[in-house]
Amino acid sequence: MHLIQVDSVQRWMEDLKLMTDCECMCILQSKPISIEKDEQNELILSSQHSTCDNLQLLLKRAWIISTELTRIAQKLEKNRWQRVHSMTVRVNCHVHSMINEYSACTRSSSEEMHQLEKLLIDKCSEFTAFTERCLQTEDEEILKSMKSCVNETLTTVAQCFGQLIELVLTQEAQNLLRQIELSGSLYVTESAVSSLFSLAQEGAHLCRIIAKEGGVVALFKICRQDCFRCLYPQTLRTLASICCVEEGMHQLEKVDGILCLADILTDTSHSEATHAEAAAVIAQITSPHLTFTQHLSSFLENMEEIVTALVKLCQEASSGEVFLLASAALANITFFDTMACEILLQLNATKILLAACWDKRLVDTPYSRDQVVTILANMSVLDQCASEIIQGNGVQLLMEMLFEQSSSGNPAEVAACERVQQKSAVTLARLSRDPEVAEAAVKLSCIPRLIKLCRSPTERNNSDSVLVACLAALRRLAVMSPDGLEDSDFQQLVKPRLVDSFLLCTNMEESFV
To answer: Which residues form the Protein inscuteable homologue LGN-binding domain (predicted)?
Structure first.
């Protein structure tokens, strides 16, 4: 869970009048208030909210309580009893506020919910009383013996709090899914899907709750009803978020979600936005970073239709965002199954992707180039790919990708640039087994660029993966064109074992004082 970053003075000004009761409780129950400075001394939330903000307010309040409990444990470790007590009082206030706010905005609560609320309030009161007794005790030995009891009470409070939040979030997910299930209203369904999407953005744990409560089933039900066509993009976007967890993937498989996605992608009557969001779901469920995609057996049955539709989407994309989603899905599929590369070759995908790369309207970020070069790298294992690359001026494109650098310095963009450099070098190394490609690469001065990437850590942003890929590409080109290297480069970068050249290049960045 995250706390929206807002200027602290602005937050204080907005919330001061609304939270005076909570502040008074702090003053009355923890006299005297410590003057000790703390970087997050007061975390305040507004109590004024609309119905649609209830869930966000709950999550923010939960984040605050969780943060405070962590800080109490830290202060307790340092025997800062005054701070422990005042923070315990503050947690008590926030727990009461959270329960009151949620009770005010929820229609009904289960008996289990009431019991957990009562248990948490009792444990918080017990915790506050316990820390107050510790505050009044000066005997170090007694405090030492009481510390373990305080720790146990803190653990109990944290467990009760966690159980309550889990139950509340489960109930919220159930309420939203019930709205989707029972309502035939476009407005109500749209509102429920929007709230479900916001819930899914709070992290993997929330996605698991939604999936376990039948979220994937409910959303695919929407995607199978023509009366909700205008909601398809939003619904598919929510599905993509939920399917980042294993429970979501299992549910997708159970409801024939792959077949539904294939139908949407191949139906030309759908909007580009719908096709793009369907591509995003495909990209999510085929991500090579996930370890639980093996059970997607139905994907193989529909792969040719899906790949064909994605290639068409790349070709007809009206914006860089649409192209990025479609190409990301294709890139992941080439990892998912090698047969995808053969299908791409039959569809002339290489020509389409290379043409898109020369169109700055479609491919204008390292992220898009990363997807394209991933596809090319995976396709380059096929012998027929070399001629396609040459015809589409692909060697020049790969050469340009070796110069990929981040303009913003943003860590995510820097990482994407590293991947582009690495994969372009890998693609060159694989394709250079074809003499025609190797000759084209040499003519375009690929060898000097590869040498510079090997010898200059800053050119490759100190990336070891880029270095290994460049060394491999350089060695392949050196075989085809040994005259392109100076003797020192040959002796250091080509002749030794790859691991020795790697160590030599990585040691170049070390400084010995």
So the answer is: 4-49
